[in-house]
Amino acid sequence: MNLTALNQTDICEDYSCPERSVPLSVYVILYVAAAAVALLTVCGNLLVIISVSHFKQLHTPANILILSLAASDLLVGVFVMPLLFTLLIESCWIAGPVMCAVLKFVNFQATSVSVHTVALIAVDRFLALSFPFFYSEKISLTVVCIATLLNWLFSLFYNFTVLYINGHFTGFVCPGVCFFVIDDVSSLIDLLIVFLMPCTLIIILYTHVFVIAKKHATAIRALQVHNSTESSKNKISDKSERKAAMLLGILVFVFLLCLLPYYITSLVISYTTVDLLHVRDVAVIFFFVNSTINPIIYALFYPWFQKCLKLIFTFKVFQRDSSLMNVQCF
Fold it and tell me: Residue 321 carries which DSSP code?
C-alpha cells in the first residue's frame, strides 16, 4: 500500500501520541538498554573499521568486505538505532519529518548494503577455496574495492528509487507518525533483491564451502595416515577445518535468525493490524541487533582482531610506523 494512497486526513484526525502507561523507571530502563545496544554497535564496528583501515597487513580482499560490512552496520548504530528505538519506546515519532526521511533512507541503505556484503563475503570465500589459483591471480584489492563501491552505489540508487516511488520524500506525513509503508509490488521486489536472492546465494555457497573443506580434510588424512609427524599436523588441520565449518554454521544461523522474523512478519502482518504491531516491533529489534552481532562473528572470532584491540587500547597505534606492525596470528 502506497503511503500517498492512504487517507491521510483521517489518520491525522484520529492519531495522537499515546500517553505513557507504565512507570517512568521502565522508560529509563528501556532507554538505557537501547543506548547500550547502540553504543555497543558503534564501538564494535568502529574498532573493526580502525583495525582493517590502519594495519596494512589486513588490507586483503576478504577484510575489505568486512570493512564495508562494518561501515554499513556503523550507520545503523549511529543513525537508525537511536531514532528507531525512540520510536518503539515512545510509540510516537518526535524527531520531525526530515529526520523521518533520513531514518527511512539510512535504514534501507544500510540494510541492503549489509545483506549484499555478506553475500559478497560468501562469494569471496567460495572462490578462495574452490579456485585458489584463479583467486590469487584475479581477485585483487582493486577488484574487491570496485565490487564494494558498486554495491554501495547500487543500494543508493535502488533504495532512493523505492522510497521516492512510494512517496516517502514527497508525501505528506502526519505529526507524530513515521511510516515505513511501501506498495505490494515494491515489497515483492525488495523481498527478492534484499533477502531471498542474497540469502539463497549465501546458503548455497557456504554449503559448498563446507563440503569442499571436508573433502580437503579427508584427502589430507588419506595421504598422511602412515606418517606420524604428518598425522600430528593433520590433527591440527582437521581441528582448523572443523573450527572454520563451525564458524560458517554460526554465521549463517545467526544471520538468518535475525533477518527471517522481520521478513516473515512483514509478509504476514500488515500495518493495519494494530493488535499484532508489537510482534513486528520485536522482529525489527532482532533485525537490527544483527548489526551488533556482526563484529563478533566476523572479527572477534579471529585472533588478528584480538591483537588489534590490544594495540588500540594500549595506544600503540599512535606509534610511528604502527601500520606496519605484524597483527596476523598463525
Answer: T
